Amino acid sequence: xxxxxxxxxxxxxxxxxxxxxxxxxxxxxxxxxxxxxxxxxxxxxxxxxxxxxxxxxxxxxxxxxxxxxxxxxxxxxxxxxxxxxxxxxxxxxxxxxxxxxxxxxxxxxxxxxxxxxxxxxxxxxxxxxxxxxxxxxxxxxxxxxxxxxxxxxxxxxxxxxxxxxxxxxxxxxxxxxxxxxxxxxxxxxxxxxxxxxxxxxxxxxxxxxxxxxxxxxxxxxxxxxxxxxxxxxxxxxxxxxxxxxxxxxxxxxxxxxxxxxxxxxxxxxxxxxxxxxxxxxxxxxxxxxxxxxxxxxxxxxxxxxxxxx
Length: 309
Known about the structure:
- This protein is α/β, with parallel strands linked by helices.
- Helix content is 46%, strand content 10%.
- It is built from 9 helices and 7 strands; from the N terminus they run αβαβαβαβαβαααββα.
- The protein has helices at 7-20, 35-51, 68-81, 108-135, 176-202, 219-226, 232-236, 244-256, 289-303; strands at residues 25-28, 57-60, 87-90, 138-143, 206-211, 264-267, 277-279.
- The protein has a 5-stranded mixed beta sheet with strand order 3-4-5-6-7, with helices on both faces.
- α4 links the parallel β3 (87-90) and β4 (138-143).
- α3 runs parallel beside α4.
- The longest helix has 28 residues, at 108-135.
- The two termini are 28 Å apart.
């Protein structure tokens, strides 16, 4: 249940990989929907791979991003099955949910969209480093949003105070639901910059990149509408959105095209919401050293131990 809404991007990404890879394994462990829906999605991906004659193996591992225990269990399974992981794509997310705490006590959006990704990345560093050692390149790819734009990152959103972070105002990009979403999406890029620094300091050959899909029509808006985060008027604007496939292109670019540590990809068209994926410089609030240090310390507190790159 941790990342139902953004599965669409992951599904299209894996579909594209099935087309371009002649062999290899694609492990979908960063998302978990209701099991029937997840099973249907995996079956569709396998069918797609068979259609194009790909020998890619698709491996789906249950991982509830609203539970650190589940995330750690998924990491154990991944490490038991794979000696090396070339790309960790932290894609799954939720948007504008109500103000409530996970079982771990954190805001549901911050834990789903950032804290659990921080934990998963930390747990998988050994197999990422192994892939970089064997093949010269491995990546951690985070998925942000245009919602990263706005105010500065605030410490209170990272603590065990889920359910006490402003209530359920749902005015798009202004209400409390959207402010919590903004904080989690800003956290994605700040985490990427912090991870870049830690990887470079440790001498790791793994790099960190980040992408934003622009304005893309996916299941994310559907689940947000169902939980009251978007009204009928807001949903009418979806007719201007690009397809889920086009929205996947910045993410795929950050995963597979030539990149430097810390690169950011986003659509290059109107308002950077649609169009071909290109690299861009991040905004000032994404690059603040103080925000980076705060996020890292707060995320390690939630994890309960240091992040070892």
